[in-house]
Write a structure and sequence with these properties.
Blueprint (H helix, E strand, L loop, with lengths): L2 E6 L5 H15 L3 E5 L4 H7 L5 H10 L1 E4 L13 H8 L4 E7 L11 E7 L3 E12 L2 E11 L2 H17 L4 E6 L9 H13 L5 E6 H10 L6 E4 L1 H14 L7 E5 L4 E5 L16 H13 L3 H16 L14 H12 L1
Parallel strand pairs: 1-2, 1-3, 3-12, 5-10, 8-9, 8-10
Antiparallel strand pairs: 4-5, 4-11, 6-7, 11-12
The structure holds 1,4-dihydronicotinamide adenine dinucleotide and magnesium ion.
Length: 338
């Protein structure tokens, strides 16, 4: 039986890499029945809104979406579509795996996962300026928020993720020495929940700045990292950098009401329409979507096809130092699957 899912081609290179991914998923025999919907600039053109109601309705119905990158229109007062999606579907966990696929890079044999809390912290944007004299922006104030429920939800997700994926250790990343309330609460709750998993998953903790340094000095010491929103935003791009950059970084946004899968990169306007975009980040996001619906078998098959295409066939796009076009890489992946 087919699983209904929303498909958002998105902007810039979005439609090119979405086409590639859909073709590979077909060859793989993935069980998705896609409902294609607009968002981003395409949404503005079709419905006057970068996040049209029809798109929201579709995701509400399917609870599952594969999303191409969206161009955030500058000016015009649109709120970020990604933030709206996170709020609408309470997408509290951002899952960012980083696995090195090509030998000879900066680091080899990296296989770690960062789980970022997606709804709280400093991203609630309770911000304002305080004027002094004739300077309206003399002082800027920002308040962050973390809740017991929010911390429990993300930390529990991290430990359950570790158990489900055979991972050995969860590292709690915080700054509780300075931000004693907003990240102290996260650490306290993290330590409590860790006790429930004693003997099954090890727990470890790091202060965020030290963690950033150690990720570069010795990334192999980490397994699953769980952290608050702002720290997670920064560290998740850092771990993408450990494994070859944005073209190789998938992400999943997991919530109570839906799960949305996407590449970490944006719409890449500089290469859009040239047919040279790397579809692998979005393809790996589709792999996470297969795991999410319980098709670990197909996700594993996909991983093998990607590894062999890159390393045995040596078909790689320009961002990975190769010469292949999006279509050539897609054809090579499909040939590997057949
Ligand atoms: P970007 O990620 O689109 O591009 C950064 C650089 O990486 C560019 O040189 C681009 O050519 C390259 N690149 C990105 N993806 C690639 C791929 N798959 N294959 C080969 N090269 C790739 O970031 P940028 O330029 O800052 O943002 C462009 C637009 O994307 C903006 O409107 C931004 O708001 C939006 N954006 C959307 C995101 C989303 O929808 N999740 C995430 C990040 C940015
Ligand atoms: Mg970010």
């Amino acid at each position: 039986t087919l699983i209904p899912a929303t498909l958002i081609p998105g902007d810039g290179i979005g439609p090119e890499i979405v086409d590639a991914v859909v073709a590979v998923l077909d060859a793989l025999g993935a069980p998705f029945a896609f409902d294609t919907q607009d968002a981003g600039m395409a949404g503005i053109e079709a419905a006057g809104d970068p996040l049209p109601q029809a798109t929201l309705d579709s995701i509400a119905r399917t609870g599952l979406a594969l999303k191409g990158p969206l161009t955030t229109p500058s000016g015009g007062g649109y709120r970020s579509v990604n933030v709206r999606l996170r709020e609408a579907f309470k997408l509290y966990a951002n899952v960012r795996p980083a696995r090195s696929l090509i030998p000879g890079g900066r680091f080899e044999n990296i296989d770690l996962v960062l789980l970022r809390e997606n709804l709280e912290g400093y991203y609630v944007a309770h911000e304002h300026f305080i004027p002094v004299g004739d300077d309206p922006k003399a002082v800027a104030v920002s308040q962050g928020v973390t809740t017991r429920i929010g911390c429990e939800r993300i930390v529990r997700y991290a430990f359950e993720y570790a158990v489900a994926n055979g991972r050995k250790k969860v590292t709690l990343v915080h700054k509780a020495n300075i931000l004693k309330a907003i990240t102290g609460l996260f650490l306290e709750i993290g330590r409590n929940i860790a006790r429930e998993y004693e003997g099954r998953v090890a727990v470890d903790e790091r202060i965020v700045d030290a963690c950033a340094m150690q990720l570069v000095m010795n990334p192999w010491q980490f397994d699953v990292i769980v952290t608050t929103n702002l720290f997670g935003d920064i560290l998740s791009d850092q771990i993408a950098g450990l494994v070859g950059g944005l073209g190789m970084a998938p992400g999943a946004n997991i919530g109570e009401k839906a799960a949305i899968f996407e590449a970490v990169h944006g719409s890449a306007p500089d290469i859009a329409g040239k047919g040279i975009a790397n579809p692998l980040a979005l393809l790996m996001a589709a792999g996470l979507m297969l795991e999410h619906v319980g098709r670990q078998d197909l996700a594993a098959k996909l991983k093998v096809a990607i590894d062999r295409t890159l390393n045995e066939d040596r078909v790689r796009t320009g961002d990975l130092g190769g010469k292949a076009t999006t279509r050539e890489l897609t054809a090579a992946l499909i040939a590997r699957l057949h």
